[in-house]
Design brief:
The structure holds two protein chains of two kinds. By secondary structure, chain A is an all-alpha fold. Helix content of chain A is 71%, strand content 1%. Classes of the chains: A mainly alpha, B alpha/beta.
Chain lengths: 564, 346
């Protein structure tokens, strides 16, 4: 899958290096900048029917400033919380091997694909007013009123953000951590440094690029959060994304929606520019371990305690909501059974909308594979270019490639409709468009996963290989590939998950009858009746299973060595 | 091993894309929202009669789909659009994306549903957005179920109601319009102020309200929810075990519900005007109209259609529902929403 990368790409001279970035730039130009520019210019062109009366309110009213402040605040807090909770896990996963580690790692990424309505349902079922925890507590202590009152509070959706993003920190930081050369720590220890000193003076600085990369992804993800904030946070809390949707869809006030989108894009662009500078400064090239050596689960009680505490915390934060979903999919009105799963296979009303589970699974997988292939290919080319980029315009490209992640889904979706309507780009109702929309969002994840690894490979190592008589191709496969392949895996997992979860502008892409698993879930959730609800839960479990199976397949493609 | 897996993946992609190719018959495209549904055989009948392939494309909720139709006005995505409702009708007509067509089947449709005298948008179906309540809950507590909007303000009904945010939900908007129609532009805010004081719960969308907060949901604590007149029959139809009675009931008293009418129209710029007209005819004709209740869970516009048993048994149409003209709605929407947000959320 990384076959598109030419082995010589690392040693090529500057001018031909620019060839690498051409395909990603064409892709971004056609499917990001062109649609975005089209919808923005249409929005700001006065037409009969549209007016600009809302625009001045954007600047005069304190409301939008408050919305922007709240959006930033919650995204920052979500990022910090996710880091605090996931860093210990990243440590444990990079350091130890234990039974079922691969499985646990896969499970942590499952939340990523769950539709927000389903996640919200799981959280409410657990911690809502009439949820499991409250019911148990009320019965235990004979209380009249529920104790936990998280509904419509900031904490409720912050928890959901941690639930979604835990895996980003775990995979990106953990994967990087596992490759840090042990000798550095041994040397520090030998020089008499204590564990704490080693962590703050050696480990953290070395990890900085990965931590920064993960934080940025989490931040931007939460910055554009939509459904989670709406459902769990309550109607009083609105992010910029919610406001854009409201203006664009319900009020059809395109100028205001477009202006808000621009604010969102510029704000995150500024942030990303600052970040990419920081990332380049923090990245240290040293000899990463091609095959991470993690210690098998040590017998020492201290180590075991660390592992079990970490796994226990993860079980509470990530496992419980997933388990709640699974239980609800098999807990029918007449006891435990497979009623809901069986119902998925029967087309009661002979509707054209009936989606056989196999069809939905195939459609979802098809989109996900196409999106993953696109994102990986372009992500590799971009990383290869960025890893060696030195001059200013080249450096600026990095934040630009991140932009799709921070762009409002409605805006971009509407942009597709306006821009991609003429041959040869008449893609508006093509099956390719959802895959392209997913790839746009997945690309930043691939780049952020791959780039820190790529930068950590010291040039001297390649030179040594070449000096010893290896051809550039051979040197690349001997030096770069073993290190990069694992980072690529991380990127592939995210790209796959993003597409399986139908993240981003694809929600607004007009498409013919290619229903995916998330769309089927939404359909069930739009009609009353316990069977519909049960089937939505069953379909959600199928979505989780399919995703896990997809991860399994991806793992099979990974080189034999290593276990992160 | 790796090559094998990659080959398998490529074959899989090939299989999925295969269905797109090889169609000789003319293709007629219907653009609609996510809630559109119809029987397989019904559409097959149309395709056979006309010798066409019908392609249905969906683009989000009703508002998002209409906006995309408007945005693609210069180069339409489809020939026919279904799913403009009376709350968005004025926007659609102002954008001038539909061409007039007086279908012969209009004769069987009651006049009060025909909101566009120019026949650019023709009524296909309608649904009554209204309060639903869980019958068992009220029976257990010995409280009388609500039968009017004013009941929700009583102390006995404190913390019992969940409604959707009109800024993000179409039934939520319809319910807001019901209160505007009922209490007038001067009075509806007063109503909402009192409703807020009686601890109404605001959910962003229908699914979250019905499957999250409503007592029918596991963990839900509120026995009154804004939904549709057709929800009680849907509860029966989609129940897990056979039930004799609906677990919920709809409040259909005069001036408590808002009637949402859904329209179809031929998009300007279609190159298949005649075929498009045939599709509109078909959607207003008996076969399709009969198919509406059990697929889209709304009432067919043709008043001569016999409703399915589950509808007859477990619900009625709302009596004298609130109706506002599309022009009034378009003119008031933003102002009402802002005032509502100010009163209920700040």
């Amino acid at each position: 899958m990384a076959g598109s990368m030419d082995g010589d790409c690392i040693t090529v001279k500057q001018p031909s290096r620019y060839l690498l970035i051409i395909p990603p730039l064409i892709f971004m130009g056609l499917f990001y900048f062109y649609p975005l520019a089209s919808i923005l210019s249409l929005s700001f062109t006065p037409q009969d029917g549209t007016s600009f009366k809302g625009l001045e309110k954007l600047f005069s009213s304190a409301y939008y400033a408050r919305v922007l402040w709240f959006t930033t605040w919650q995204a920052t807090l979500s990022t910090v919380l996710t880091l605090v909770l996931a860093m210990p896990a990243a440590f444990v996963f990079s350091r130890y091997t234990f039974k079922g580690k691969d499985l646990v790692l896969s499970l942590t990424t499952i939340p990523f694909v769950l539709p927000t309505v389903v996640t919200a349902a799981a959280f409410s079922a657990l911690l809502g007013r009439g949820g499991l925890v409250n019911t148990v507590l009320m019965q235990l202590f004979g209380l009249e009123q529920p104790i936990i009152r998280l509904e419509h509070s900031v904490w409720f959706f912050l928890m959901a953000h941690v639930f979604y993003n835990f895996t980003v920190v775990l995979r990106i930081v953990g994967g990087f951590w596992a490759r840090l050369p042990r000798q550095v720590f041994d040397a520090a220890r030998m020089l008499g440094a204590s564990g704490r000193v080693i962590f703050f003076k050696v480990t953290l600085p070395l990890l900085a690029p990965a931590i920064l990369a993960a934080s940025l992804l989490v931040f931007v993800f939460c910055f554009t959060s939509f459904g989670v904030v709406l459902i769990l946070g309550g109607p009083r809390l609105a992010t910029v994304e919610v406001e854009i949707y409201r203006q664009a869809v319900h009020l059809f006030n395109l100028p205001v929606a477009a202006a808000l989108s621009l604010v969102q894009i510029l704000f995150t662009f500024g942030l990303m520019t600052a970040y990419t500078r920081l990332e380049r400064r923090t990245s240290i090239a040293l000899l990463p371990e091609a095959a991470p050596k993690s210690t098998p689960l040590a017998k020492r009680p201290k180590d075991r305690l660390v592992i079990y505490t970490c796994l226990g915390t993860m079980a509470v934060f990530l496992g419980a909501p997933i388990l709640a979903l699974f239980i609800r999919s098999i807990l029918t009105e007449t006891g435990v059974g497979l009623t809901y799963y069986l119902a998925l296979f029967e087309n009661r009303a002979q509707s054209i909308l009936y989606v056989a589970p196999a069809t939905a699974i195939l459609n979802s997988l098809g989109f996900a594979l196409a999106a993953t292939l696109i994102a990986l290919t372009l992500g590799c080319l971009s990383s290869a270019f960025l890893a060696g980029a030195k001059n200013r315009p080249a450096v600026l490209l990095d934040p630009i490639l991140m932009l799709p992640l921070s762009t409002s889904a409605v805006t971009l979706g509407f942009g597709f409709v306006v821009a991609l309507d003429e041959p040869p780009l008449n893609l508006r109702s093509s099956w390719l468009l959802p895959a392209i929309a997913h790839a746009l969002v997945a690309l930043p994840f691939v780049i952020r996963s791959v780039l820190p690894a790529w930068r950590s490979i010291p040039q001297s190592l390649r030179e040594a290989a070449t000096m010893l008589g290896a051809s550039p191709r051979r040197a690349w496969f001997a030096v770069d590939w073993p290190i990069l392949s694992r980072a690529l895996m991380v990127g592939a997992v995210f790209a796959f998950a993003i597409s399986m979860g139908e993240f981003g502008a694809s929600v607004f892409v007009a498409r013919p009858q290619t229903p995916t698993l998330p769309l089927a879930i939404y359909r069930f959730l739009s009609h009353p009746g316990s069977l519909n609800y049960g089937q939505a839960m069953a379909m959600s479990c199928l979505l989780m299973l399919t995703t896990a199976a997809g991860f399994g397949l991806l793992e099979k493609l990974k080189p034999a060595s290593g276990n992160f | 091993m790796k090559i094998k897996i990659i080959t398998m993946l490529l074959i899989l992609i090939g299989l999925i894309t295969h269905g797109q190719a090889a169609e000789k018959k003319p293709i007629l495209t219907l653009m609609t929202h996510d809630s559109f549904a119809v029987g397989k055989d019904v559409l097959a009948q149309f395709e056979q009669q006309q010798g066409v392939t019908l392609k249905i494309i969906k683009s989000g909720d009703a508002g998002a789909a209409l906006n995309q139709a408007i945005l693609s006005k210069a180069n339409p995505l489809a020939d026919v659009f279904f799913g403009v409702d009376n709350t968005f009708m004025s926007r659609a007509l102002k954008a001038d994306i539909f061409s007039a067509y007086a279908s012969p089947h209009l004769a069987r449709i009651p006049d009060e549903l025909k909101l566009d005298p120019g026949n650019r948008l023709l009524p296909v179906s309608y649904g009554d957005v209204c309060l639903n309540y869980e019958r068992q809950w009220f029976a257990d507590k010995g409280i009388r179920p609500p039968h009017d909007l004013d009941d929700l303000l009583k102390p006995a009904y404190k913390s019992l109601t969940v409604v959707q945010n009109p800024a993000t939900s179409s039934p939520g908007m319809a319910f807001l319009l019901a209160t505007v129609g009922r209490f007038g532009e001067d009075g509806f805010l007063e109503y909402w102020k009192k409703l807020r004081n009686n601890d109404v719960y605001i959910s962003p969308g229908w699914s979250d309200a019905y499957y999250g907060q409503f007592t029918r949901a596991k963990g839900g604590t509120r026995p009154i929810v804004v939904s549709y007149a057709s929800s009680p029959p849907a509860e029966v139809y989609y129940s897990e075990t056979k039930v004799d009675d609906a677990p919920t009931a709809a409040v259909l008293a005069p001036q408590t519900a808002f009637r949402q009418i859904e329209f179809v129209g031929i998009l300007k710029g279609t190159r298949q005007q005649e075929l498009a007209a045939k599709l509109v005819d078909f959607m207003l004709d008996t076969r399709f109209q009969q198919d509406i209740p059990l697929h889209m869970w709304v009432f067919p516009a043709d008043s001569t259609i016999q409703l399915p048993d589950v509808f007859i048994k477990y619900t009625r149409k709302a009596e004298n529902p609130v109706m506002l003209t599309p022009e009034a709605i378009e003119a008031g929407r933003e102002r009402w929403l802002e005032a509502w947000t100010e009163i209920v959320l700040r």
